[in-house]
């Protein structure tokens, strides 16, 4: 029996959804599909530097599932870059979430919200400390 795919939470949806090698006409390109949830895993792990556990929590999946999504996304991107394929970002099993994220400074106890898709804050807006923690259920 095959388990149903859990809808993955996606917190950022940029307007860009297609990439192609420069100088090659569209008719001559093979296209490969990267799903929206795979792009989200790349954003969380490779752009924001989150762990598999943190990324899985944000996407509403287990650490292991996040790792599988990320591994597949990296394979697709590598294939496109090495083989000169276009990347079409579409589909997947996901839901958009637009809830703010709550952070706490370990040094001054200041709490603040950050909009989804803005990345992990580097320092506390109150005291400038880099010792910050994302609070759960935010």
From TrEMBL:
It comes from the Bacteria. Transmembrane segments: none annotated. Keywords: DNA-binding. Pfam families: DUF134. Signal peptide: none annotated. The keyword DNA-binding applies. GO terms for molecular function: DNA binding. HAMAP family: UPF0251. Belongs to the UPF0251 family. PANTHER family: PTHR37478, UPF0251 PROTEIN TK0562. This is UPF0251 protein SAMN02746065_11078. It comes from Desulfocicer vacuolatum DSM 3385.
């Amino acid at each position: 029996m095959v388990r149903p795919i859990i809808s993955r939470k996606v917190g950022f949806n940029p307007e860009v959804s297609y990439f192609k090698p420069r100088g090659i006409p569209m008719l001559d390109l093979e296209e490969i599909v990267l799903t929206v949830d795979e792009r989200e895993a790349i954003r969380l792990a490779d752009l924001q530097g989150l762990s598999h556990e943190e990324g899985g929590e944000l996407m509403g999946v287990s650490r292991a599932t996040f790792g599988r999504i990320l591994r597949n996304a990296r394979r697709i991107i590598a294939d496109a870059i090495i083989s000169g394929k276009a990347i079409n970002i579409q589909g997947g099993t996901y839901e958009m979430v637009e809830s703010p994220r709550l952070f706490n400074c370990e040094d001054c106890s200041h709490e603040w919200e950050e909009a989804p898709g803005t990345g992990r804050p580097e320092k506390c807006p109150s005291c400038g400390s880099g010792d910050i923690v994302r609070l759960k259920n935010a």
